[in-house]
Design a protein that fits this description.
single chain, about 350 residues, alpha/beta, seven-stranded mixed β-sheet, three-stranded antiparallel β-sheet, 16 strands, globular, binds 4'-deoxy-4'-aminopyridoxal-5'-phosphate, serine biosynthesis
Length: about 350
């Protein structure tokens, strides 16, 4: 059998997941009409799917009762805007952001459009070897009078993952987990609002979800309907027709994740498989260079640079010739995405050819 290894951004269904979908496909076909035109069915199918989704997620993540789950469309990018809109009382209320990578900076830039007082807790730092890292929280610029602190737990583009939750005082913590959702257990005592889009770890593009404490939502008026968390909560996410197929896929993936093991075992799995690649990078005598401090290297996105553009292109071509596809070149890095997919490969032969 020919094995093609896909290391791209998108979600790829593995063989057992495909079998799983196949099993359901028969039912799915039967139900297709209902699920696609559910607005005429008074949303019944949709609600059933959402309830199924919520129960599964609550069970896997052990989410305490005081949190609610909301679905929306528009991706994580929509939430970069909706979070300041809904969580700040006025434009003068302050909020804090970390600026530790491409995606946290995007969120910060959006917040500036809605808030005149965005405090930057920390920028990315570099050690004496030029490796990037997030400084210790005791070096952060923290303003206690904050509506919330926003950070991105796994900086996808740079391949840097936080090793701590930046909890301080009573400030609510908002976490973008788009690229490492469901890959490790979470400490709900420290988290107030977690969000992620589906397309990386839990399904296909189309649904984005939030797990949040409802009391964080301010009673703001004039929030456009599709951005309004209050409406979403009151209508159990059904503020318009939701993309039901992506939500259906989410429920299947949750089952798959649960059947594979606990979140503790997923965490171990993610560490081990990323470690396999980091080892090759570290033993490559400088052919591959990873620019993140070892302790903060991501378990999910392994990034590296090569000597120059020629070398990078040669490497990508070599990968393609060997059925390793979708390695991304983003900004200056090559990056390997290890979302919840398995990895069994001996790269050594391939890398020797460089
Ligand atoms: N946050 C993170 C951590 C991401 O990796 C991405 C996309 N790769 C986004 C946000 C933006 O997601 P979307 O395309 O759903 O808007």
């Amino acid at each position: 059998m020919k094995i093609i290894l896909i290391f791209g951004e998108s979600f790829h269904l593995l063989e057992d997941q495909l079998n799983f979908l196949d099993k359901y496909y028969i039912n799915w076909k039967k139900n297709l009409f209902n699920l696609m035109v559910n607005q005429y069915q008074k949303y019944q199918n949709m609600i059933m799917n959402i309830i199924k989704f919520q129960i599964k997620l609550l069970m896997i993540y052990n989410i305490p009762n005081q949190y609610k789950i909301i679905f929306c469309q528009g991706g994580a990018s929509l939430l970069f805007e909706a979070i300041p809109m809904n969580l700040l009382k006025t434009q003068n209320t302050s909020c804090t952001y970390t600026n530790t990578g491409y995606w946290s900076e995007k969120a910060l830039d959006e917040a500036k459009k809605f808030c005149q007082n965005v405090n930057i807790a920390t920028n990315i730092a570099y050690d004496e070897f030029g490796k990037r890292f997030v400084p210790n929280i005791d070096q952060w610029n923290i303003n206690q009078d904050n509506s919330y602190l926003h950070y991105c737990d796994n900086e996808t583009v740079e391949g840097l993952e936080y090793q701590f939750i930046p909890k301080f005082g009573r400030t609510p913590i908002i976490t973008d987990m788009s690229s490492n959702f469901l890959t490790k257990p979470l400490d709900w005592n420290k988290l107030d609002f977690v969000y992620a889009h589906a397309q990386k770890n839990i399904g296909i593009a189309g649904s984005t979800l939030m797990i949040l404490k409802p009391e964080l939502i301010q009673n703001n008026h004039n929030i456009p309907y599709m951005w309004d968390f209050k409406e979403m909560l009151n209508k159990q996410s059904l503020i318009s027709n939701l993309p039901i197929f992506p939500i259906y896929v989410n429920t299947l993936v949750f089952d798959w994740i649960k059947n594979q093991g606990t979140l503790e075992s997923w965490d171990q799995h993610c560490k081990q498989r990323s470690q396999q690649i980091y080892q090759i990078i570290d033993n490559s005598h400088g052919v591959f260079i990873n620019n993140v401090k070892k302790e903060q290297r991501s378990r999910i996105n392994v990034t590296f640079t090569l000597k120059d553009e020629n070398q990078t292109n040669r490497f990508i071509d070599l990968c393609k010739d060997n059925d390793i596809i979708e390695l991304q070149v983003d900004v200056e890095y090559v990056y390997i995405c290890l979302f919840l997919k398995s990895l069994q490969i001996n790269y050594v032969q391939l890398w020797k050819n460089l």
